Task: structure prediction
Amino acid sequence: MIVNVLVETTVNKHNQMFTYLVPNIIKDKIKIGIRVLVPFGKRQLEGFILEILTEEKKYDYELKSVIDVIDEEPVLNNEMIELGRYMSDHYLAPLISCYQTMLPVGLKAKTRVKVNPKTENYIIIAKSVKEINDFINSNPYQKQNEILIKLLNNKKIKKTNINGSPLLNLIKQGLVKEVAKEYYRLDENFSKKESNIELTKNQQNAINEIINNKQDSIFLIHGVTGSGKTEIYMNIIKEALNENKTALILVPEISLTTQLINQFKNRFGKKIAVLHSALSDGEKYDEWRKIVRKEVSIVIGARSAIFAPIINIGIIVIDEEQEGTYKQENNPRYHTLDIAIFRAKKHNAKIILGSATPSLETYARARKGIYKLLELKERINQKPMPEVTIIDMKESIKKGNTLFSDILIAKIKEKLNNQEQIMILLNRRGYANYVICRDCGYVHKCQNCDITLTYHKTNETMRCHYCGYADKKKLECSKCSKGEMKIFGIGTQKVEEKLKELFDDIKIVRMDSDTTNKKGSHDKIINDFNHHKYDLLLGTQMIAKGLDFSKVTLVGVINGDMSLSIPDFRSGENTFQLLSQVAGRSGRSNEEGEVIIQTFNPDHYVIQTAKNHDYIGFYKREMIIRKKLNYPPYCFIALIRVLAKDYNEGLKESSKISSYLRKKLSNNQILGPSVSSLSKIKNTYRFQCLIKYRTKKELDQELKKVISHYENNSKVSIEIDFNPLKL
Result:
């Protein structure tokens, strides 16, 4: 028997598989999709068997043999193998990277990376009940008899509860035996609760449309925040489960899984697996095997959960579909929706996209009829949308208020007196943006990246949020040696400090990348705030969407227009989405909500449409701009990133690529080369060329040639990103 094996190695440039002989002793274990250990030069590597060759042929070289079989059952099923090939072709990515991306660490083809099942030792009866009873009746040792009686009543007992010489004697006599029983690390007890939620007419109409519609397969639920989209998801999933089908539910942030999982487990019980990056390797391994063993019918998770090996899918939900976290930034640079569409076609499943602020591309497709559009224009409790007040910080600064306006301070005090809760959004972590010399203007930057370091007061360090470089805060300028280094800008730590100065005894919890880097930190913050252990939740954009706190009646936004200045054609869209989503956290229960947005651009159309909860108004204005500039959704874009250690080398090669593509792709618009918005990261310069295109076939052919040309270039490397979310 001969097999073709795909291994991960820098030698493998063209998705090449390597051929190996299979020793007779392991022939019965060979299956497509399992991992095997193979010799590769002087090394031993793990790889996936993708082909079994039934007809043996002669080779010009001597074939090496498979060393060992790692899996009893395939870790890649037929659908995953086909999906990997689609991804490799569609994103021009190495095939091995596609398969590795799909799998949890414990199942990747990575030599010496092992995750073992979690087990606990139990004692069980090894004889018949009659033999045990006969022994008890004639046995003079009371402690032995007590163990046996417990086992007759309980079937099994943890060994740790009955260790000792009486147990050892029973084992020696063959009356009982020790067994290892596997258990799951996340095997929590949840009891189902009957739902008594009464659906609104709009919710029921949406459910009926999705269930009964035989023509459309992708549905966009455009519903204002608090309109009950999650309840629609659960009702449709219930219908799918009744038809013995399964469901995938995707959320953009790990922080959103806490409340959602609790809702789903209360409704559907334990038949749920959870997949996201905050789980340990062992937990991911367990959840994956629950799915493979068909012990669950619902999978909930972040982006990578789209690859869950669940079968007979009936529904795929992508909640907050507009979020950029659904796009992977490294190889393979896939978008979750593309994978969802591929899988939905295989399973004849339906896709539900949900958002209060859908991406322009998604909403444009829905308006054109490519997706079925369902609108929910009212909140389920018929409460009005929260009133939004815009504060012009130019006027506030004149009064000496640089961080909080008088109105925001007064409103926070009012809510605290009423024992209501507040959320404050600042899309910036750390204590301050940068440290600058007051004399010469020198700004302390990362030694590896073209990025200013962010000051963190808790440990008096300045950190790069791209490569991780850190340095102690300097008191004197390292350039002129005489100037004092002064802190400028604001971060979440500084906002927290100022709030505590303004309000005595205020209880604040901060939620940003610094406070959520420990396991379980998301859950703890959300649960503690939900149980009113804190008065105010301060955070970055991770608090802006999906969270539901009944006592929050005020949302404040610091520097609401900050992201408008980012040099990206999506900056207006991203700002509108952020402001609209965070505004939707206020007044979701009985009390009416208020929102205060502090900005230096109060008349900007993005700020004004967000104030009026006017998605359609924003959509129309933004689409006019996109059409004039020929940006998505009026075209597709592909980004070629040129990476080089030497600036001049990178510029030279990126110029060559642009010239070549202009000749070969005359019907497409080629922009660049230009320096990336992050011109240097980890001592590597980044240049880019942007291609605006309508059809992909001709483009793929030329990009494959570009990739091939630079495969063996030690000075320059190439990255291709289709429809990137960041330029």
Notes: The longest strand covers residues 669-681. The mean pLDDT is 90.
